[in-house]
Amino acid sequence: MHRNFPVLLSQGIFYTVAVQLTSAMAVIPFIAAELDAPAIVVALLVPIYTIGTLFGNVFIAQILRWTSSVVVLLFGNVFFQAALIVLNALAVEFLPDNVSPYPLLITSAFIGVAAGFSRVIVSLSTAALLPPDRQGSLLIQQAGYGAVMVTLVSAYSAGFLSDESPGIDNAELLWVGAAAMIVSAICCMGLRPIRDVMPTERMRMGEAMVAGARLLRSAGWLRRYLAAQVAFTAITLGSVFYGIYSSESLGPDNGALDVILTFVGLGLLAGIWIWSYVRKRFDVRGMLVCSALIGTSAAVLTLVLIAFRPIPLVWTFGLAMMLTAIASQAVFPASHVWVEREVTDDERVVVLSFTQIVVSVASIGIALVFGLIARHGLEVWPIAIMLALNVIAVIAAAGARVRQREEI
């Protein structure tokens, strides 16, 4: 149906706003660090979120056995995340500062579970609701136009739009995110599938893992895809590192979250043009290579700016978060298109579940390391580690061989 694109675009825009304003990967660790939570609590937030993501990927095969409607799956997952964001907002607003970081650990785990569901559900829903030639464009536009709203909210809070702006505190920012997620859930009700992409055989998780391992041995493209996904955790988790690193460097109660989010919004906004151009000109492999290069540039720029201090630190970290947002924005659309060019409808859930479980296991360790080393604010060596990991991502992207559009 033609109306699916604008409805799905609207749903994705509000979803992007909610995720960016309440991110368990960047915003929640920043808030916890600003509340002067113990170092181990801040360091554990993202690994716990990632463990939740792992469980989400493990149990998604079971969830798919409950319903045959991708719209019901999408609505349920979005509504579940809205409820969790409300709980986070309540904790930050009403609990004492020395207590509120601890409930965030629990909700981060469940938000991770929902994120694990999302990777498969979004792929299924876009395949069921849109023709293949519009799917990649949708994902980029959702992130980009959502960035416009994120930028406006953050810029208003930071006082960039009005000197009379009272600013938006951490709890209020979470409430705005919760409202956006609820609107996203409401948008789901207007969607109507155009084809059935649910697997004909509903596998249990153990069966899906065995099938995934079998496919991994026989399919060279899947091995390359999985290697690239693991390497690109340095890109997708970059916001975790820079978020904690900036909060530690700026000190507790620094009030810089809205400024940082403004830069993130500007990065996502710039990503609309950048990734639309790169996708059309250089296709999937070009998107991955450019993404890794931009992530590398973020690390190099941060090293230089910290060494010479030509601008305020908050602007330095804002630029790093902006470049990281641009880089990570390309990873999911590129990965989605890569998979869609290779899999059949019956293989889709197996491939996505299997690869995301492997990536989640790798991400748990990487996220814990990022959380720990980022606590050493203003020291150079953590940035150097990020630079090395981003260079590995460049190498992995350069070695990727993705089927071209004309081969399909």
UniProtKB/TrEMBL annotation:
The keyword Transmembrane applies. Coiled coil: none annotated. The keyword DNA repair does not apply. It comes from the Bacteria. InterPro entries: MFS_trans_sf, Sugar_transport-like. Keywords: Membrane, Transmembrane, Transmembrane helix. The chain crosses the membrane at residues 12-33, 39-60, 72-92, 104-130, 142-161, 173-194, 225-244, 256-275, 287-308, 314-339, 351-374, 380-400. PANTHER family: INTEGRAL MEMBRANE TRANSPORT PROTEIN (PTHR23526:SF4), INTEGRAL MEMBRANE TRANSPORT PROTEIN-RELATED (PTHR23526). This is Putative MFS family arabinose efflux permease. It comes from Mycolicibacterium moriokaense.
